[in-house]
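Morning!

This is the sequence you dropped in the shared folder:
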Amino acid sequence: MKNIYEKIVASLIFSTKSSSYSKNIWPFTVILNLSAAISFNIASIWMIINKYFFPHFSDFMNLNIFSNKTYSEVANFVIYLFLPICLFNYLYIFYNKRYVLLEEKYQKSNHMKIGRIYFGLSWFGYFAIFFWIYIIFK
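The structure's back. Tokens below.
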């Protein structure tokens, strides 16, 4: 699992470094994209478990920060998922310049598209799965 994660990270590093619009801010772009994809995957699994298998599974975690429920749910997502995953990714990838070791371990030509595939499946693949689940359990 660690090997797959490192390949995804190395792929995202290579693709963002080679992109013309994010050459100067590539560390921020890598952390943001990777953390968003991982957070979305965990949130999707969390929602399926909470809705279909164990209702009220995560009720104890709800922070009612705002009077609007949607804003509170977004704040919960950021506090419980996005920020801890951003911190983990920073410590695992960029602390002590570990990304240099990842770049040496996984060369550019071998794993260029894995990060893009993971990011694409994380965002667009789940919409298809949720639509399918909605049709079945309607």
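Headline: The CA atoms of residues 94 and 100 lie 9 Å apart.

More detail when I'm at my desk.
O.
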